[in-house]
Amino acid sequence: MSVRLTPEQIERYSRQIMIPDVGGKGQIRLRQGRVLIIGAGGLGSPAAFYLAAAGVGTLGLVDSDRVDLSNLQRQILHSTADLGREKVASAKDKLARLNPEVEILAFPVRLDEKNAADLIAGYDFIVDGSDNFATKFLVNDAAVALGKAFSHAGIVRLQGQTMTVIPGKGACYRCLFKDPPAPGEILNCQQAGILGAIAGTIGSIQATEAIKYLIGMEEELLVDRLLTYDATAMRFHTIEVRRDPRCGACGDNARGERKLRSMA
Ligand code: ZN
To answer: What's the CA-to-centroid distance between 30 and ligand 1, angstroms?
Structure first.
């Protein structure tokens, strides 16, 4: 891969290259970057659009669903003409149209315990846009075990939350929430509803975190901070969080086991 930008690339990305934090060097880093997006839905749509537009070199998309009429109110990667298509195929078309330079890898599968490590291993950063607790904990545990940075997010009704996990540098998702809630204990957006624009805001923050990570601004991410967004009162808050030494994913014992494995 050439490490120089062509005149066309310089023009396409000019408005971000002129930002001192990005520059030509940052643009090349984006081009060499690989981001995996779990879920081509409400959060994955804005995240994927902005990452493709920004020139991230490789985007992986994981989603086993097909486009349903009730998705279109928020999952802006998909159009009415895509009803019934695989979401990852529909997403790939839109992203390729936006930026043909980006390599889009489509995985029409559901992330599970068997494929999680293989899917995540080849990427620099993971955007978790999943809509259920089991997948959120699975992404966390696999990313922590592999030492991969990722962005967590959750949305419901007029509210959202997001935090970034850099294994070894701060709290993980399991440090905060310990275990998945019992079924029915917390409503998800399928049961409680979600305003599409809330997904847009939070998914865009996830894309921003991925971009900042790739260009080397990893000291200034949402690490050890849970950002909450309540659009009812239109307020953002930041809650400081701490790594739990007894955490089942990143705690001292879990970490010790990993150290032993890596030394073996
Ligand atoms: Zn943890």
So the answer is: 28
Give the number of C-alpha atoms closer than 13 A to the C-alpha of residue 209, restricted to the C-beta side.
Answer: 29
Centroid of ligand 1 to alpha carbon of 254 (angstroms): 9
Tell how far CA 260 is from the center of its chain: 29
Query: Can you tell me the mean pLDDT for 73-86?
Result: 98
Model pLDDT for residues 235-245, shown as the tens digit of each residue = 999 999 999 99
- Model confidence over 196-217: pLDDT tens digits? 999 999 999 999 999 999 999 9
Give the pairing of strands 103-107 and 225-230. Answer: unpaired
**Domain spanning 20-263, CATH class:** alpha beta
Q: Please give the distance, rounded to the nearest whole angstrom, from the Cα atom of residue 171 to the centre of ligand 1.
A: 5
Domain boundaries, the chain: 20-263
CA distance 27 to 152: 24
User: Which residue in the block uniquely carries the two structure tokens 């849970």?
Assistant: 226
| Residue 261 reports pLDDT greater than 60 | no
Looking at residue 83, its pLDDT comes to 98
Q: Quick one: which of 208, 184, 250, 245 has its CA closest to 54?
A: 208
The 10s digit of each residue's pLDDT in 59-70 is 999 999 999 999
